[in-house]
Amino acid sequence: MDNRPAWPWILFAGITLIAFLSLAHPLPNLSAAAISHAVLAVGALPLILAAMIYFTPTLTRSGPPPRSILLAPLAALAAGGMAMMAANGSLIWIHPAATLGIGAALATALWMGRRAKRCLGAPHPGLRWYQWALGMLLAALLSMAMAAVWTEQWQALRSFHLHLNLLGFVGMTAIGTLQVLIPTAGGFSDPDAHRRLALDWKYALAGSIISAISAGWLRPLSALGLILWAIPLTRMVRGLWRQGGAALWASETALLSGALAGFILMMVASAMIPLGLVNADDSLPLFFSAFLFPLVSGALGRLLPMWRWPGPSTPARERALKRLATAGRLRALIFFCAGVMVAMGNPQGIPLALLGLAWLLLLVLWSLITPGPTHTDSAETT
Q1: For residue 303, how many C-alpha atoms fall within 13 Å in the half-sphere facing its CB?
Q2: C-alpha to C-alpha distance for 73 and 100, rounded to whole angstroms
Q3: Any idea where the domains of the chain sit in the sequence?
Q4: Burial class (CB in 10 A: 0-12, 13-18, 19+), 329
Q5: Is the dihedral angle over the CA atoms 62, 67, 72, 77 positive or is it negative?
Q6: CA–CA separation, 376 vs 47, rounded Å?
Q7: What are residue 122's phi and psi, to 5 degrees?
Q8: What pLDDT, in 10s, does the model give residues 321-377?
């Protein structure tokens, strides 16, 4: 089934709201928590669900997704808007946001499970990373629904919710995808990726859960969570470097590799928080600057042309791929330097990261207005 009409509109809505609400930070009526939810819940959540749905047919060797499941990212977008209002002080929206978000995540997870059961043979191990990431999202949303009625545990459950989202949902989705997407973008093969994905999900899952519990209630466990996450990250970096080498820093792969470097930077900074070398309040801006923004930039650079022009390669799609890879190395450096500045307590890192995000927006608009194949193009491809 052709899903051409749905993906661009999901993408338009998500990425436009990421940019608009992130750049709206100086507005006095938006709290820092509302801005964070604008980026994570309004922007990242629907895009991640859309990417999961896009990749699942490949991971399960099945047909295109039905149009009904494409409603899940749109429902997540609405839930994210409600969550942003709740974070800005309108607590009446907590339960509607959690309920709608749980519905979107659960529908996606159940659909994935059905596709996995019908798969001829075992599904690709990357699917398990997606399924557990959705499990972390469901637990995170449930924890905030509980916090609204268990007020004495509000702060602990909020921290638990945040870490499950950052490391469990976004982290597991991203690392599971990057193990395949980086070699694809770089034009090299990584035969060990399948084995790593099959073995390392349990370390990432345990590390995410333990980190979330430590953030909420048992601070001394934080080191164990970081150590567990270090296992898949170390194996991944070693494998990618062995197979890809200089291709990891090509314009097409630099942002994806930069996102991986930013995730590692975030982990290192987290280890320095108990030593007083990094301020805990800088953790979320660091996550955005060094990891999430380059991840979105690099992933959209590969996926947007596929969503906009599905099927066999066309000249229009190839032009869009080249446009979205423009200055990839420079943009990756901007995001990483912004993350380092934030980790060092320099607030100028945030506008630097927003500069990189605005650059992405311009490239997205430039790519989407690319005309379709001309008569000459069509003649050349026949």
Answers
A1: 23
A2: 11
A3: 1-124, 154-248, 250-370
A4: middle
A5: positive
A6: 34
A7: -80, 140
A8: 899 999 999 999 999 999 899 888 888 888 898 889 888 888 888 877 755 444 444
